Every structure is written in C-alpha cells, then in structure tokens.
Amino acid sequence: MEGANYNCPGQVVISGEHKAIKASMKIGKELKGMVVPLKVSGPFHSSIYEKASYKFYEELKKANINKFEKTVYSNVKGSPYEESDDVRELLRQQIMSSVLFEKSIRDLINRGVNTFIEVGPSKTLSGFVKKIDKDAKIYNVEDLKSLRETVESLKLEEN
Q1: Which pLDDT score is estimated for 12?
Q2: How far apart are CA 98 and CA 80, in angstroms?
Q3: Which of 108, 126, 101 is nearest to 12 (CA)?
Q4: Distance between CA atoms of residues 124 and 107, nearest Å
Q5: What DSSP line would sit under 42-73, residue for residue?
Q6: Using 50, 70 and 90 to split pLDDT, how confident is the model at 157?
C-alpha cells in the first residue's frame, strides 16, 4: 500500500494490492477517518506498475519531445520540468509514483499564481485548490457557455 495522490490537506489517496487497501480502510474507519473507496480499474501510481512503466518508457523513446515553450509541471516532482530533466524518465516514473498535486499547487502559489482554471465536467480539482488556498480564484470550464463566462471574467480582472 502506497500514497498514490497527495491532493490537499486532509486528503491522501492510497493505492496497492486489494488486501492491503481493505486493511488500511478498516484502520482508517477505526480511527474515525473518512474512508471513501474509489472506483478505479487498477492500483495506479503504485510500484505495482513498475513493469508497465518500462514498457511506456520504451514507447516514449520513439517520441520526439521538444523543448517546452511554457512552464509544464511534473507531478512526480511537484515542480516544473527543468531543461536538465529527463522528461521521458519522469513520465515513466509518473505511472508508478505519487501525484504531488498539493505540492504543485503550493509551488504555483509561491511563484505568484492565484488564478486556476479547471477544464472538465467536474469541480474536484477546484475543491482541492480551495482547501490548499482559500483565497485562490478558481474558474470551471465544462462547456462553451462556461468558457465564454470565464474569458469575460478574466478580461474584467485584467482591467
């Protein structure tokens, strides 16, 4: 059993073999913790995926990875990729390593970012960001209407 996602204060997702997860859930409940089983198809972001990570790496070797024009964060590091980083190796590790979402958001905040846009049909990540920094400005884009509203709101903030 391993920490798979460090999402925000008070929320860690674990991953691993089914038996270990069930035992951990039992202990969590006994300690009066909130325990919510996630519906997933595998023990993602755990060492169980190490073999698959090497297969992925072999495929990545075939890909041409250009220098990033914008800042791109590595969930393995919780910070931006640097020119010296082996991008393929970090992507390989991502399959079997914890997602450091909270660390990534805190790093962005420390660099002066205070506005976040979640794209997709859910507000899950927005909720995590709010728990990390209650003062963060958060927008959700899930369709054309919400995209237009977000663009307008961002234009107003600029003025």
Answers
A1: 93
A2: 16
A3: 101
A4: 19
A5: S-TTSGGGHHHHHHHHHHHTTS--PPPSS--E
A6: confident
Q: Which two tokens stand for residue 37?
A: 């089983």
Tokens 């107003």 correspond to 156
Q: CA–CA separation, 115 vs 67, rounded Å?
A: 25
pLDDT tens per residue, range 21-72: 999 999 999 999 889 988 899 999 999 999 999 999 999 999 999 989 999 9
- Condensed to tens digits (0 to 9), the pLDDT of residues 74-119 reads 999 999 999 878 899 999 999 999 999 999 999 999 999 999 999 9
Nearest to 78 by CA among 138, 13, 8: 8
Six-digit token pair at 145? 């209407």
Euclidean distance between CA atoms 138 and 39, whole angstroms: 26
**Centroid of chain to Cα 88:** 18
Query: Structure tokens of 94?
Result: 């991502």
Q: Which residue shows structure tokens 């069930």?
A: 22
Are 79 and 87 within 8 A, CB to CB?
A: no
All residues at 6 or more sequence positions from 13 whose CB lies less than 8 Å from its CB, including other chains: 3, 4, 5, 7, 38
